[in-house]
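Deliverable D4.2, example record:
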Amino acid sequence: MNEATIVSQAVGKYMKIAPQKCQLVTDLIRERYVGEALTILHFSKKKKASSVVEKVLRSAIANAQQKSPDIDVDNLFISRIFVNQGPQMKRWKAAPMGRAARILKRTSHVHVYLEEKKGR
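Output generated by the structure prediction step:
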């Protein structure tokens, strides 16, 4: 995959959701057309993760339209989509016998790369 074929990209950083939850949703829409991917995200049962991924995907679509206004959105194709782990917020929760238990609130970085495929 060359960088020359990438039409647009978008990155959502520091999204407040665990990367493992987000990866379940991104696996559903990998290598699909944008319209089909938006429909899958809209009807997904994982509401929080799908809304986060949909936000980044819509940003990538808007970037493609801004970069070249004559582009056909129906021909846009998700070439690469992946989720990386962001920084973790460390919190404490009360535990029995005066102890404290650590809670890790994880964040995610979502990357979306779009290509244009002519002729379905």
